Amino acid sequence: MNEAVRNEAPRTYDVIVIGAGPVGENVADRARAAGLSTAIVERELLGGECSYWACDPSKALLRPVLARADARRVPGLRQAVDGPLDVDAVLAHRDKIASYWKDDSQVDWLESVSVDLIRGHGRLDGPKQVAVQTPEGDTVHLTARHAVALCTGTSTALPDIPGLGTVRPWTNREATSAGRVPGRLAVVGGGVVAVEMATAWQALGSQVTMLVRGDGLLERMEPFAGELVAEALREAGVDIRLKTSVASLARAGGAGGEVRIALADGGALAADEILFATGRAPRTADVGLENVGLTPGDWLAVDDTCRVTDVAGGWLYAVGDVSHRALLTHQGKYQARIAGAAIGARAKGEPVDDARWGAHVATADHAAVPQVVFTDPEVASVGLTTREAERTGRRIEVVDYDLARVAGAHLYADGYRGQARMLIDTDRGTVAGVTFVGSGVGELLHSATIAVTGEVPVERLWHAVPAFPTISEVWLRLLETYRDQQQPSRS
Hints:
The model is unreliable at 1-6 (pLDDT under 50). The chain contains 15 helices and 21 strands. By secondary structure, it is α/β, with parallel strands linked by helices. Its cofactor is FAD. Residues 13-330 form the FAD/NAD(P)-binding domain.
């Protein structure tokens, strides 16, 4: 391991990875497992956004919120959890999960797999060339024999709103690392980050107002998902304002003053902090794209092995969020495993398995992307939505079932509310998409992902017997509903 590299002769590796989040770490690990010498370049913390400012700390904030919500629905238990959360304990646990924003354990892991770490800001400096500006002000020049992988992820896409820079808005980073609970929190956006952080901070004591430009929450998912989440948030005390846009911002009285929000409809709102959860932008503005014929700041188009299509020679890979295929940590890690294996095969002159569902292609990016939204109720989905099927011309049959009618749901919670939807590809007789909404449905998702990815015939699914009494019995109920829908109507 050579972490503090100083000015020296250029160094050569088989593979150079820029960005040491979960995606970059997995590319490096797979390349090293293929026997290739590998270096990874990181300017912040190893583990990236997910470990310190997104997945891990956000779920640490949400877990006590959701556990308490579930407990309150269990007779005999609700009285034991009545009362506010212990905010200090929740935040302390969040800090522990985020490793107190230190990456020592990640460095140890890199050492264990024999990947060299170079701290600093890495930029492409020509074909297979990377220049790293170190924290000490030195420049390290690296050359890749086979591949460079850009795994730099994304950051919050902030809108162009007058006064935005003066209010120091929260992004996902501040929302997941804040050390105190704001009395009033305005959340701009209606997607996953917006609903999860509204759920967390409302339960921790904030008065939360959501400002949503669209017609509903979670608009990329099935409509009932956003509707059920919005219903629960409102019941919890969140003020959700749809079709609402921010016109301008100002912070009164200096750093500790309130944020004054002018709305496009002429209304106004005051908050102690304002969180923008308005989408993501690629971190490609300053990684040297111009030196290899690409436009700085752009998303990077890739083939199914994650090679950048607009760069000659096939040496540049873009993996994870920067490829704009599926902006999810688990999906980026999947791409990383694919890319690392493909790099290894090409470096050794071995055949590339690029058939559909082959070892070197990210087919799931197109057909089976799973996602869980950790709200109350949870949302879990994989594959197509009804809207996507209609847009792409897929012939499907929609099968809906009320999750509250499943026996296991009655045991899970008194007054359980939820919904399940299964989409059947009528030409192939397989499951094309599944969406679940309800407490605990995240644990149902992998079975749905296997059904979609494995293209399991519906006839075969009848033989996958769900245990009684569990919520997974919803699979049987969906199949029964589908069967009944196929029966000719009786006059």
